[in-house]
Amino acid sequence: MSSKSEYNFLEDGIESFEFYHKAALENNFGLLKMLPQLVFKIDLGDRFIFLNDSGFKILKHNKDYQKEFFLRDIIAPESIEDFKSYINAEAKDEYFCTKDFTVLLFDGSRSYFTIHLKKILKDNIITGYIGIGIDITDRKLLEIKNRDSNDSKMKLFSIISHDLKNPFNTIVGFSNLIMMNPEKYSKEKILHFVSHIHGSAQQTYSLLENLLEWSRAKSGTIQFTPHLFNIILVLEETLELFISVIEKNEIEITRDLPKEALVFADKNMVMTVIRNLISNAIKFTNHGGRVEIFLTQKDNFVSLSVKDNGIGIEKNRLISLFTLETNLSMPGTDNEKGTGLGLILCKEFMSLNSGSIVADSVSDEGSTFTISLPGKNAFQTQN
What we know:
Blueprint: H1 4-12, H2 14-25, H3 29-33, E1 38-42, E2 48-51, H4 53-58, H5 80-87, E3 97-104, E4 110-122, E5 125-135, H6 137-180, H7 187-219, E6 226-230, H8 231-240, H9 243-248, E7 252-256, E8 262-266, H10 267-283, E9 290-298, E10 301-308, H11 315-318, H12 341-352, E11 356-362, E12 366-374, H13 376-382
Parallel strand pairs: 7-9
Antiparallel strand pairs: 1-2, 1-5, 3-4, 4-5, 6-8, 9-10, 10-12, 11-12
């Protein structure tokens, strides 16, 4: 939303600018000093000849204005080329140029300004410029936020639409074979087709479940109810969900865990995170492989680690594992597909619970994912 001073200036348009311009030509700087906008006068070398009181406050400049400084000194590097073109642009005397720039304030911070600039002519010769700067930082930051949000949504939709095709192709393809020629295939062959359909359906369900949780977290509609609970029990309950696939893939699960480890967090969110980590560990572990689960406690935090001896993750993938920058999902040992959304959801849930998630991996040797949550002592400190 435009500020009041910006709105007033734009409402008055060229007439207001001409008023300021006339005051500058007449060296009526007493009037210009009182204006709420950033008003300045520069020579042909863009050296400040005049800067009003509001200008010093807006630019957070506490130095004596008699000391030389230049307009180009406060233009951010990424805007400097635009500025050079802008300052040299030809324009008719009755109009002024308008352009947005990123400005470096004198305290080191950044702001965004619309700068209105008009040439000062004397005997048809340009002697300098009169300028007005309008702070549009709030509006610009909102634009950037909305653009980033839209970019993230488009990346997410692109990833999901791409990876949904594979399971549905499997479901549609195998089901069509059974429906069109049921008598052609043996019972064993049909069961083989059905197992593929079942696996793809489970994959799709897992994706949609993560997508629903992620969208609720992003929209702020998810219920967040942290309380003290034993994370070991949550882990054991979650492992029960994977018994069949663990036995099928002959994966050894080893535990180095106490009977009790109390954490202060939202139990449903933590269960979702653990489910994703165990699912990934099984997915990327070879048949006959091993998944280790262990727990440590330090500085009022409980850290639970899930380690596999599977295919591992390359360093370039590890860096962006918890972001939507690109689709970094890798096929599992049985060529299972995924979006990578599960790990992004884990990161989101850990942040909501004042916790963290980190990954460590060596390609072809395995990966370790560790989540850390406030423990019992942290809960007692809060109370």
